[in-house]
Amino acid sequence: xxxxxxxxxxxxxxxxxxxxxxxxxxxxxxxxxxxxxxxxxxxxxxxxxxxxxxxxxxxxxxxxxxxxxxxxxxxxxxxxxxxxxxxxxxxxxxxxxxxxxxxxxxxxxxxxxxxxxxxxxxxxxxxxxxxxxxxxxxxxxxxxxxxxxxxxxxxxxxxxxxxxxxxxxxxxxxxxxxxxxxxxxxxxxxxxxxxxxxxxxxxxxxxxxxxxxxxxxxxxxxxxxxxxxxxxxxxxxxxxxxxxxxxxxxxxxxxxxxxxxxxxxxxxxxxxxxxxxxxxxxxxxxxxxxxxxxxxxxxxxxxxxxxxxxxxxxxxxxxxxxxxxxxxxxxxxxxxxxxxxxxxxxxxxxxxxxxxxxxxxxxxxxxxxxxxxxxxxxxxxxxxxxxxxxxxxxxxxxxxxxxxxxxxxxxxxxxxxxxxxxxxxxxxxxxxxxxxxxxxxxxxxxxxxxxxxxxxxxxxxxxxxxxxxxxxxxxxxxxxxxxxxxxxxxxxxxxxxxxxxxxxxxxxxxxxxxxxxxxxxxxxxxxxxxxxxxxxxxx
Length: 539
Prior knowledge:
By secondary structure, the chain is α+β, with helices and mostly antiparallel strands. The chain has two domains: 1-361 and 403-468, no CATH class; 365-398 and 502-539. The protein contains 13 helices and 19 strands. The strands form four sheets. An eight-stranded mixed beta sheet has the order 12-13-19-18-14-15-16-17.
């Protein structure tokens, strides 16, 4: 139901009635579902959201395109190379808003059944738990929200309001909200950020929300009102999922609002499209309050979160990044770019886009190329699977800033700190130059985890070795949530799709196969000849 019944019309706002979706006026979108038949967006994107509430750019808005017959990052390189610096922002194929209505400045009753707003009482119930979801909103959640002022997304029905997300209004960034604090003294800027992320127990999972300014250019209005923000988000380790100790990465765009609200900042989330998430997550640009606080898919229900915020005097860098990500989403939904956890994941897709736009984010190199090569046959024999051997190879071979969210955030933070100090940095392209010229402030935002029936999470692992130490040695003790596949329909495959790019593990498979077929028998023959010669036998 996308319209508000009369009983609640005076209490609820339409999700596009006011405010923003990141850098976009919300009024420039219309609310619908992926089942719409007249939406000017690609059919593949609509298929994924056929049962979800989405916002589609209105007719006449400049929607991001894509180049047929090229890989996703070649598309970005070609597009960025010809795009005027002052070009207008391109719109995304859709924004996942999850619910059509919003209750603002609401407070939850003690029994968790009514939302008290300035315009009246709103009976509600939380949206149903997804069956695969192992934890959910409970009495501890109701107690935590208590008397906090909330923004609540949901859907009204004749029986009441079905709440989809609860967002504390006090989680803000704006006039009077951020406090100044120094960057901790450490061996490097990346290590300083790590200290910030780990200074609170469990990475801040049970600590208060914190918004701090780490640096601000002299002479800039302290309120920062109206400034553009480009954020770099890392969600921490989950407390009961041994596949999620590395965390999750996303890029954020928006503006500093006069009231400090940040729930409408736009988060660009990449997640595998080829599985049915146990939390209902679908890759998309979506508002920050929905990304963190959705009762099923919200990352804030599973782990703590950190955002490093670059405050910019001009919107051009954020416009460039958001427009590029919109093109990536087109290629992602079409399956020209496919999610592959070792090298085409939430971190690598984001960092690769930043680098393609001309920001030379420093690399850390792979975990171990030597171990990758030597471990290939061992994993293949141990697991009796070449596919598992290839995955293990690619994990070890991938640059850590494309694999580990916290490693990427540390290098991004170090690069931004260098820009703030005017220090020499590697030669930068368009995006790096824009950031160096426009950077006016750096902020650190820490979000706790919402209490629920789920265990509390922690700060994310930074290295592969740290990640491995967190996984129980006994496979029977590992907590992993099996998820069903979501096959991409053949009829949605466009004829211009290219075969996926060659991966390092493909080379390893060829080399080890040749060695097995040719090299191993030759080595055995040479050993046999050597032993014969040692015994004095004729060769």
